[in-house]
Amino acid sequence: MNERLRSVLAQRGVSPESLAAECEVDPKTVGRWLGGRVPHPRHRFAAALHLRVEETFLWPAPQPRSGRPDTVGIELVGTYANRASVPREVWLSLLQEAETQIDVLVFSGTFFAQTNPHVARMLAERAAAGVRVRLCFGDPKGQAAAVRGHEEGIGDTLAAKIRASLTYYRSLPAKAGCEVRLHDTTLYSSLFRYDGDLLVNPHVWGQPASANPLLHLKRVDSTGWFDNYAQSFEAVWDSARPWTPEPEGTTTHGQD
Q1: CA end-to-end span of the chain
Q2: How far apart are CA 214 and CA 82, in angstroms?
Q3: DSSP label at residue 60
Q4: pLDDT digits (tens, 9 = 90+) for 111-168
Q5: Phi first, then psi: what are they for 179, rounded to 5°?
Q6: In angstroms, rounded to a whole number, what is the distance separating the alpha carbons of residues 165 and 112?
Q7: What are phi and psi of 10, to 5 degrees?
């Protein structure tokens, strides 16, 4: 069975019949692909293009007995032209299906709550189910946020956005399994990890993160991109300071 193809179809919301129509083949042919048959090269290309994934992820090339697999080639599940184009359903399904850990590294991450007003409750529910939840936001008082705001041409607005975003997560630090920290580091990529899935949002100088590309990685082993990004999260997390929310009704001007 080609579980990768089956998984991507489900994630993209594409039926086997729709893929068959896109590739101009009989639906039974797609059924055979799902059963493990490798398509003709032009059909592999068309299917991968339609599903927005790397062809080698769906149909990895056989490796020589003594060769080392191209880990990076099969880790890249999909790409998006910008973060704003990632379907809301992708964010929700990854969060809801996480079983061991959820890690988020951003400056403000305002979209994370604005596209899902129940995100704090959902994160708390995952933590109650045994998932380790770690959220790392930029320190609104830090130098890194000030520099980034200047580069984007928005000045102190980024610090204000961070403070506004944090209000959604006031209840989380008190929940078992949930931690929220503030970092003061140069952020080259925003990271969103859900177990073995990692959404990487590289930053382009002077542009908001939402306008920049996004890569969807799946962990294969410790030699690929996934672990490199995961290790960078750990490094930032270790240097970040715990965030303690102000009580409800407290004046937040100048506070974290």
Answers
A1: 50
A2: 6
A3: P
A4: 888 888 899 999 999 999 999 999 999 999 999 999 999 998 988 899 999 999 999 9
A5: -135, 140
A6: 9
A7: -65, -40
